[in-house]
Structure prediction request, 359 residues.
Amino acid sequence: MRGGNVDLVVDLGAKSYPIEFCDIGDVGNRLLKRVSSRKIMIVTDENVKGHYLESARRSMEAAGYMVAYSVIPAGEESKTMEMAKKLLQDALSYGLDRSSCIVALGGGVVGDIAGFVASAYMRGIDFIQIPTTLLAQVDSSVGGKVAVNLPEAKNIVGAFHQPRAVFIDVKALRTLPQRELKTGLAEVIKYGIIWDDEFFKWLDLNMEKLLSLDMDVLKHAVRRSCEIKAQVVSQDETEHGLRAVLNFGHTLGHALEALTGYKKYTHGEAVAVGMVYASKIALRRGMISEGFFNSIVSLIERAGLPTVFDPFPFEDVLNKLTSDKKAYDGKIVFALVDENRKFFRLEINPCEIESVLYN
Ligand code: NAD
Ligand code: GLY
Prediction:
C-alpha cells in the first residue's frame, strides 16, 4: 500500500489503511482509490459544518460521488445511542447500501459516533476519517475504536471498526479553539513519554511553536504521533497487550472526567493530570528518575494543561477507578513506562494510589 499519495500505513493485513496528509478540498480524488461505492454520507457537527463541510462535499461531488450529510450538535452530549439511532435512520433514508461509505468530518466525537454507526449499519459498511481536531488527528481517528456513551459510562458501547483511510489536513487546526489545541497536545506529549525520547525532547524545544500554530512544526508533531499510534495498533489491534500503553494517564484521567461529570475537563486535560500521577507512581517505584518526572510535569505545564488532581474524597475516586472499563475483576490497572520506554501493565493497590494522590 506504499507509494503514490500514501504517507503512513496502519498495517493490519487485509484491513490495512493509509493515513494521508492533504487538503480537505482534495479528499474527493483520494477517495476514489479507497471507496468503490458512489454513495457517501458525511457526518459532521455544527461547528465543523461552517468551516469544512462545503469544501469536503464539493470535492467528493467533483469526484463523482452522490453526497448526503448529517449534522449533529457539537460536543460529547451527542455521543449517544439516541443520536446513533438518528444517524442510522438518516443512512437508511439516504439510501445507503452495503457498499456505501460514511465519512466522519470532525473531532473525536464525530469520529467515534460516525464510526460506530458505520460498524452497525447493515452489519458494517466502509468509513473514512477526516479528523479536524488535534486530538482526533493524533489519536482517535487512527486505530478503529468507535463508540457511544451510556448515561452511566463513557465509550461503553462500541466496536473495533477500522476506517478505509484517514485524511489529515493540519491547516484545519487554524480554526480550532486554543483550549482544544491544548487538549490534543496532551495526547501528543503522551507519545513522547511512552515511546520516543527524541520526540519528547523535540516537543520540549518546540512547545511554543506548537501553541502558536506553526504549521511545519504541527505537521511534524501530528505525523510522528500517527506513526507511533500506527505502529502500536499494527502490533495489537484489539488491545490484548501493547495497545494498552496508549492508556497511559487514562486510568486517573477517566476517573477525573467522571468525577467532574464530564463538564470541567476536556479529555486531554484530564489525561494530562492522569499522566502526572501515573508518572509519580513510576517515580516512586524507581522506574523513572526525578529528572524525567520533572521534565514531564514541566512539558505538560508549558502546554497550558492542568497537572493537579482535584481533592475528591478517595472513596469517590476509588469507586470510579474500579468501575472503569480498564479495571479487571475490580482490580485497578495502570499503564506505566520506565525511562527506557519499556511498558508495564501493573495492578496498583488502592493504598499506593491514595498515597500518590494526597502526599
Ligand atoms: P470534539 O469532537 O468534541 O471536538 C472539540 C470541539 O472542537 C467541538 O466543539 C468541535 O465542534 C470543535 N471543532 C472540531 N474541529 C474543529 C475545527 N477544525 N475548527 C473549529 N472547531 C472545531 O472533541 P475531541 O477532543 O476531538 O474528541 C473527544 C472525543 O474523542 C471523546 O468522545 C473521546 O472519548 C474520544 N476519543 C476517542 C478515541 C478513540 O480511539 N476512538 C481516542 C481518544 C478520544
Ligand atoms: N486512544 C487509545 C487507543 O486508541 O487505544
